[in-house]
Structure of Carbon monoxide dehydrogenase accessory protein:
Amino acid sequence: MKTLLCGKGGSGKSTLTALIAKSLSERGCNVLVIDNDESNFGLHMQMGLELPDDFLNFLGGKKNLVGKMMEAFPKGEKLSLFDHKWEISTIPEGYVTRKGNLSLIAVGKIHEFGEGCACPMGALAKQLIQNIELGENDFVLVDTEAGIEHFGRGVEEGCDVLFMVADPSYESIRLSEKISKLADNSGKPLYYILNRAEGASREILSCGISEDRVISTVPIYESIFKAGLLGDEFHIFVPEVKMVADFLIEHKSK
Ligand SMILES: Nc1ncnc2c1ncn2[C@@H]1O[C@H](COP(=O)(O)OP(=O)(O)OP(=O)(O)O)[C@@H](O)[C@H]1O
Ligand SMILES: [Mg+2]
């Protein structure tokens, strides 16, 4: 099962990606997290892993990838970046960090002033997700950058299910309408996780989002906030996140 988490900036995508990954791995699943946010540097800390080298470097770096894209697109050719499929365990070493049954890939980060846009990362993420073959007990979670640009780049194509993380804000309610349409266009099922949603704010948020698609509501946890602030690995049991892990395990067996 390959799941992509999306939502507005700061809604809790990376926090939930790390917590769901940990929860699945505690249940004995193999989990690969694909960090597809070119700007942020905290996800690996929350997973308790080193940040791997940019996967972009496996293909010779951004310039090289842009060269391949420029060569293929004017001729109307399909860009094909990989010549064989990988399993989670056969992803080339150096571009993945691992601990137990948790693995992490970072598609590519912005490192230099003026190095160019992140479009090549989107093209790479799309093919990378599609290039990984999953076994019975394997899960992929894709953490995305804020907003909806990844829909424009077609990153969702290789995923089985989409989770929108919605925090109690007007922007999340409006964005949920847009993402619902984009998910329909992509043909992928969309579910919502309401995050930092409690009491009246949860009520208002759920009025704007289809309740039957909400799989969990995660309240504000001081322990999550503190670990996020300090860059600590999550060692937190969150029952509302376990519900999401249960959902994925059940959904997979259908
Ligand atoms: N349920 C929660 N309880 C308390 N704090 C939370 C919770 N969820 C997220 N946070 C905090 O909210 C902030 C934003 O979370 P996070 O970085 O995961 O959001 P994001 O959607 O990944 O942001 P970005 O769009 O920048 O990638 C962090 O400080 C995080 O610790
Ligand atoms: Mg994030």
